[in-house]
Amino acid sequence: MKVPVISVNNLHKKYGNFEAVRGISFDVLEGEIFGLLGPNGAGKSTTLEIMETLRTKTSGEVTIKGMNLDQHPNEIKKIIGVQLQTSGFYPNLNLTELIELFAGLYNREVDPMALLDKVNLRDKSKAKFKELSGGQKQRFSIATTLINQPQIIFLDEPTTGLDPQARRNLWELIRDIRQQGTTIIITTHYMDEAEVLCDRVAIIDQGKIIALDQPGNLIDKLLAAGFEKAGEAKKANLEDVFIQMTGHHLREE
Ligand code: ADP
Q1: Which atom, in ligand 1's list, is nearest to the CA of 46?
Q2: What per-residue confidence (pLDDT) applies to 253?
Q3: 55: closest CA among 7, 15, 87?
Q4: Residues with beta carbon inside 6 Å of ligand 1?
Q5: What is the pLDDT of residue 228?
Q6: CA gap 225, 55 in Å, rounded
Q7: Tens digits of per-residue pLDDT, 52-83?
Q8: Contacts by 231-238 with C-beta closer than 8 Å and gap 24+?
Q9: Residue 145's closest CA among 188, 193, 191, 178?
Q10: Distance, CA 60 to ligand 1 centroid (Å)?
């Protein structure tokens, strides 16, 4: 039996009079890749930031690894890894210097080369952050979430703006991290990505969860309800053509 590592119970968040999160409840299980999906403004980032201890909630209960968020925020911070927006990195420091800076903030001893190895950036250890390609920047920002050897990491739209090769490369990295026992909560606007990567997804709309299940189950339910796609479905799409023609290997390396 898998145990919940995160339990969110009847979570509410108001910004002034506007209620962005309206009574959300869900569990994230140990070792799971859990997706938060939903249109812009649905309340995904707000929910994520509350779990990350970066935003206060209005009401409800969040428990992470058995610790109540209100009572043990500092203990929770020690076991989670939070991905910063890539704009948050000093552009003129090199990757080794940035890792040392973060390790200092976390008060941890870290071997920068070992960490860069994990995300396939050893060759770039002396490169400045601003010199990296989009995919490399995202890989580096995921590396920084691992500095404190967290049990849970939160990734907010990690593949936005990446080319198909870099996106697939990041999926592999995310799966590798999960393979090592880390639970992953991810937001994405790409449904193909959620379908291949997430064990379960919660679809949020207007501050409420409207569906929560394995992607395959949600698709089966829709089909069982009589849904049919307009037009003839082909067994490949344009992205398959693109990857077939340009290969899986990463560019701009
Ligand atoms: P999502 O990540 O799903 O796009 P957000 O959690 O960012 O959604 O936002 C949910 C709603 O809350 C949106 O309508 C947004 O405009 C509003 N909102 C987010 N942050 C603030 C804030 N600091 N002050 C006021 N309203 C906010």
Answers
A1: 6
A2: 57
A3: 15
A4: 15, 18, 20, 38, 40-46
A5: 86
A6: 39
A7: 999 999 999 999 999 999 999 999 999 999 98
A8: none
A9: 178
A10: 18
